[in-house]
Structures are given as C-alpha cells and as structure tokens.
C-alpha cells in the first residue's frame, strides 16, 4: 500500500489486514505504563490540516508518537499558505524537509489525490484525513474496528447510516468499506440530504430509506451523522426541531433497536438534534470507543505505509 486515499480503493483483504494489525497493536499496548513502540523510529510524519479537527488530528499525532515517529503539525493559519503558497509548493517543501508521510485534511474534494500525485516521485506517502465531501478512509476503518469489537464481525450485518449523507465524507467511506466487508448498508435521510447520484455509486448491498422508524428494528448498528451546517448554503430542512423529530436518535427510538445493536457517531455530536443526551451517554453507544480505536487504526495505517516489507511479514 503506497497511499491511503479512499475506502473505495481498499479491497477486503487489505482492509482486514489493517484491522487485524490494529487489534494486534491494541493487545500489545494493553497494560503498558509507557505506550511506546520502536517500530517507526527515525520516520517523520507531518499532519497538514486546512480544516479544524480534534479527534482525527490528535489521534494521528498520538498514533505516530506511540510508534516512535517524529510528528510535526502544520496548520494553514501558521504556515506559508497564509502568504499565498500553493498546496503543491507546500507539499513539496515538506517532502524536501524530510517528510516520510504527509497526512492531509483539506476542504477541496480530491486534494489528497493531487497531493499523492505530486509526492509519489519523491517517495513520500499520503494519507487522506478528509477531503471536502469526498472521503475519510481512516474514519471508516475505525468504525469497522468498533463494529467488529461490539458485534463480533461485519459480514452479514445490517447497518444504518442516518442524517446528512449529502455532505458527509464519513458516509461515503463507510458505504464503500462496510459493503466491501460484506455488510448491508441502508442510508436514511430526508431527500434533500441525499446525493442525487447515490444510485450510481459502484457498490452492492446499498439501499435508501426516508423512514428511520421503519428501519431501526432490523439494524445491527446505527451510525448517526453530523449535520454539517458549515457546508450548507440554503435550507435543507425546515428547522433543527423538525430534523430531530424525524431523524434524531432519542430514547424512544433507541428502544426500537435490537438489544445487541450499537450506536456510532463520528463526532462532534449535536446533542438534542442528531442524538439525545441519554442515547449518547448510554452503554449502547460506542462513541468513545471509536475514538480509542481511532488511535490503534491510525497506528496500523502508518505501520502498513511506512514499515518495511520484512517487518510487516
């Protein structure tokens, strides 16, 4: 694996290898007072974030440091981007400075792919930490890891993805990855928050519904999405209250799920609108587990990208 740009590029074997590596790293670190492995000593990892982030940025930084890599954080506001430098020149500068891996989050869909094209010749790998409304592959991987922990497996499970699918890179990556791993995925949203080309997505096992209550009793997991107001220009639903009434996950709807079903949310949560306080804080929710798994999954991704083939064997 040279880069990690999208879940649509992951086959089942590669995805499962990353998830298995993440499980192994989690077991290796369990109970350790000092969470430090020498695996990536001497490697330099640079995070380049052009959008705000807490969970993704912090977990990538922790992942790199737990693997003994040198981690450098670059933000648009504190770099030469603020002086008008192009993304290409910034990327080539970081590679020339010694970056082995650049982790990028950018508001433009396709930015990570462009970056990979510029950096492939100089031997620097690229990880897509979210590009516009396109993809967020490591989020899908950590969600899959959490589902495996809670459900014991993904193959044959029915998973609902609920909310602002139109603007969600998390939804896109999860649709690709979960169906690749054998799950049936149903996306549930108002028509205004669904992509017009959803039916043309190259995946099997994907269905669409507008009725959350009708789907809940058959789901093994429900993934609530953040309503991305910062990407909305115009009215996509009448009000926050009406959205909560029709598509928010409250205690009544939680009771409609099977007893084994798990609740996920990529964060940050809009409590009271997308998800009720009682649901977010219930034992059925695995939201903090997603964050913890995110560190191990991102360690696994860095391992597969940067460790030598002999080490991986």
From TrEMBL:
Residues 156-305 form the Aspartate/ornithine carbamoyltransferase Asp/Orn-binding domain. The keyword Transferase applies. GO terms for molecular function: amino acid binding; aspartate carbamoyltransferase activity. It catalyses: carbamoyl phosphate + L-aspartate = N-carbamoyl-L-aspartate + phosphate + H(+). GO terms for cellular component: cytosol. Pfam families: OTCace, OTCace_N. Its EC number is 2.1.3.2. Pathway: Pyrimidine metabolism; UMP biosynthesis via de novo pathway; (S)-dihydroorotate from bicarbonate: step 2/3. InterPro entries: Asp/Orn_carbamoyltranf_P-bd, Asp/Orn_carbamoylTrfase, Asp/Orn_carbamoylTrfase_sf, Asp_carbamoyltransf, Asp_carbamoyltransf_Asp/Orn-bd. Carbamoyl phosphate binds at residues 55-56, 105, 136, 139, 267-268. L-aspartate binds at residues 83, 169, 226. Keywords: Pyrimidine biosynthesis, Transferase. Residues 2-148 form the Aspartate/ornithine carbamoyltransferase carbamoyl-P binding domain. Catalyzes the condensation of carbamoyl phosphate and aspartate to form carbamoyl aspartate and inorganic phosphate, the committed step in the de novo pyrimidine nucleotide biosynthesis pathway. Heterododecamer (2C3:3R2) of six catalytic PyrB chains organized as two trimers (C3), and six regulatory PyrI chains organized as three dimers (R2). Belongs to the aspartate/ornithine carbamoyltransferase superfamily. ATCase family. PANTHER family: ASPARTATE CARBAMOYLTRANSFERASE (PTHR45753:SF6), ORNITHINE CARBAMOYLTRANSFERASE, MITOCHONDRIAL (PTHR45753). This is Aspartate carbamoyltransferase. It comes from Actinokineospora fastidiosa.
